[in-house]
């Protein structure tokens, strides 16, 4: 499976934890002054957000207050995980440039991406349920999950789907929540529902790949991730997951080659660095693996897979106290990880 041997639960927590960690290194160069709105819209529709961003920067360089360009730029930067840039673009859209519901949903999305989900909740909760569109519900649910308050607001799922059952993103959100909680059957059903409404839904496609990993169908998962990477050019997550699958399959040379290719386009991407550390660990280069994780302490501290790997590395290097500390931190985040608890008990006997 696409994980280290210690913890079978990490696939279920990965995607909820990633929004604050996924901001890609984006090039500053432009394509040229010939960019048009059609160019930007075409790139955006093809999920090529990096190219859309460059076209939009060219357009906004000439017309910084263009409502349509700022609106699409905000959506593009949210797709790329940059809540600050999105918030700035939203602030430039005139009162007539978009409706209040769209503006509220975009601002809530930027709040989540900037790591302040409570602001998104405060922004959306006062809006009457009948006035919330599907995207507003999606942001409200997502914000509660990031804020640790979703369990007390789980009825939002049913309420949202009752009002917006045709919204693919809401079904994908149900799938993501279900796989996180270990309800694989609901995850399968919800992902299928999402893709029936939008066969290009990124989140649902990722959930299906993760389900294949949980089913130990690594070949199928690798194929699915490769298809996602083709559909979403410039996205590092599916490529980094292919690296993880290659490691799990023992294809270390293939993993190393893909790491090098992906690093060239996404330098410093945390999840890819995590996979690079996994590869070093698999090759028994424990100090090399440790050096990689040491270079990203904030990522390791709050990311269960990173804690799992860090504990294994520490144990391999004979650093028992560090291994214990990592496992204790892991169990504070994922208290039902029985494999980690058994390992901790073994180290503390």
Describe the protein in words.
- This is Tetratricopeptide repeat protein.
- It comes from Alterisphingorhabdus coralli.
- With about 350 residues, this protein is an all-alpha fold.
- It folds into three domains: about 1-10 and about 235-349, Serine Threonine Protein Phosphatase 5, Tetratricopeptide repeat; about 25-160, Alpha Horseshoe (Serine Threonine Protein Phosphatase 5, Tetratricopeptide repeat); about 165-215, no CATH class.
- Helix content is about 70%, strand content about 0%.
- It has 21 helices and no strands.
- It is globular.
- The model is unreliable at about 1-25 and about 25-30 (pLDDT under 50).
Which tags fit this structure?
21 helices; Serine Threonine Protein Phosphatase 5, Tetratricopeptide repeat; single chain; disordered N terminus; TPR-like_helical_dom_sf; Tetratricopeptide repeat protein; 3 domains; 349 residues; mainly alpha
């Amino acid at each position: 499976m696409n994980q280290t041997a210690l913890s079978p639960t990490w696939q279920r927590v990965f995607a909820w934890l990633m929004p604050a960690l996924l901001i890609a290194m984006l090039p500053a160069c432009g394509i040229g002054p010939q960019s048009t709105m059609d160019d930007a819209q075409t790139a955006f529709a093809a999920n090529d957000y990096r190219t859309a961003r460059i076209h939009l920067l060219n357009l906004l360089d000439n017309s910084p207050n263009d409502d349509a360009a700022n609106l699409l730029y905000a959506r593009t930067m949210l797709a790329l995980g940059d809540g600050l840039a999105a918030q700035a673009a939203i602030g430039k859209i005139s009162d007539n440039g978009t409706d209040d519901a769209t503006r509220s949903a975009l601002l809530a999305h930027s709040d989540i991406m900037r790591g302040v989900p409570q602001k998104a909740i405060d922004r959306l909760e006062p809006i009457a349920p009948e006035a919330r569109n599907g995207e507003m519900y999606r942001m409200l649910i997502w914000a509660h999950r990031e804020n640790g308050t979703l369990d007390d607001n789980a009825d939002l799922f049913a309420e949202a789907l009752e009002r917006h059952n045709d919204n693919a993103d809401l079904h994908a959100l149900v799938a993501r929540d279900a796989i996180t909680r270990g309800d694989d059957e609901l995850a399968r059903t919800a992902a299928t529902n999402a893709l029936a409404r939008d066969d290009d839904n990124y989140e649902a496609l990722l959930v299906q790949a993760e389900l294949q990993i949980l089913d130990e169908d690594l070949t199928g998962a690798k194929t699915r991730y490769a298809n996602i990477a083709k559909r979403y050019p410039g996205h590092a997550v599916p490529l980094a997951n292919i690296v993880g699958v290659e490691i799990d399959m023992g294809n270390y040379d293939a993993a190393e080659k893909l790491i090098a290719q992906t690093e060239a386009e996404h330098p410093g991407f945390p999840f890819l660095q995590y996979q690079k550390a996994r590869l070093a660990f698999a090759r028994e280069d424990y100090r090399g693996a440790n050096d990689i994780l040491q270079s990203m302490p904030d990522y390791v501290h709050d990311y269960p897979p990173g804690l799992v790997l860090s504990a294994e590395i520490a144990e391999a290097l004979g650093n028992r106290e560090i291994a214990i500390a990592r496992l204790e931190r892991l169990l504070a985040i994922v208290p039902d990880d029985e494999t980690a608890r058994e390992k901790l008990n073994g180290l503390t006997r």
